[in-house]
Structures are given as structure tokens and as C-alpha cells.
Amino acid sequence: MEHSTRKMITFRRINLGEGLLYKEVRLASLRDSPEAFSSTLVDAMLRSDDSWHAQADQSARGSDRATFLATDERPVGLAALYRDERFEHTTELIQMWVSPEQRSRGLSRKLLSFAVNWAQANGYRTIRAEVMPDNLRALRFYERYGFVRSGEVSKHTEAGVILMLDVEQAGALFYESS
């Protein structure tokens, strides 16, 4: 009889008081994939613990932002959304990352499903994501799950690809009871 050594992965919204947990996963994402984010590892490392706690607490409640975690004994993935005030009924997927050892196991899809369900429950019609054009894996992932290229120019870099997801149409694809 075979025994699996894989740990159970849990998915959830970040809780109040989990600033240091958020810091841990965010620093891991910036170490692993610095080219995928507009933030830098150095800037993130210079932030105070109080600022990490404040951001986690804001992401734990309300409808302006949310952060979802994938954890085993430690964080192995995250998806974070933030209301984009420039566009009505739009939230921006500002962070999406899964640790290298957990990739190709469905964690990204599950994190994205949490993001879509949260967006739908909070009245958002569109999820916007920005991806660097050389990040083909991310582009394929988002397009496979219904994101379409908008053709607009990135607010962070002139090279970023802006993708949009219609939350209503995506709801059936991502519906999962939690």
C-alpha cells in the first residue's frame, strides 16, 4: 500500500493579524519571480512589520481588497485583488503566485476561483490583470480561464499586457462552494 507524503493544501482568505504570514509569502514570491511583479524584493524587505499587518488586515475584510492564501504548513501561494478606482465595478488581480514545488497541481486555478467568487459576491463585473509579455506561462493560464487581451497600455510599464475577465461569464467556470 502506498502512502502519500503530500500535505493537504488549504485555501482561504487571509485573516486579521496575519501580516507576518503575508510578508512571508510575498517575499517568497518576489524572490522566486521578481520579473513578474512591479514591486521589488528590496522595497518589500524595507517595509515595517506594521505596514504588513495593516495591509493584511485591510485584505481580510471588506470589499475593496482581498488576499487569498494556499497553505500547507507554510504559505505556498497567493492571489490578491484590489479595487481599481479608475474603472467602475473593476477589481485588479495585483498578485498571483504559487511556489515552484507546487506548480502544475491546480493551485493557481483554485486561487483564481476564490478571486472570481469574491469579485462576483462583491459586485465586481470585471477582473483586470497585468502580465509581462514574456511571461508566457501566465498569459496562457489567464487566457485558458477566460481572460482576454484588452489592447490598453499598461500603467506600470509600456510592455505589460492587460487582460480582462468578465466575472459573470467566468462564474460558472469557477463556481466552487467554499
Automatic annotation (TrEMBL):
PROSITE patterns: GNAT (PS51186). GO terms for molecular function: acyltransferase activity, transferring groups other than amino-acyl groups. Keywords: Acyltransferase, Transferase. Residues 9-168 form the N-acetyltransferase domain. The keyword Ribonucleoprotein does not apply. Pfam families: Acetyltransf_1. Coiled coil: none annotated. This is GNAT family N-acetyltransferase.
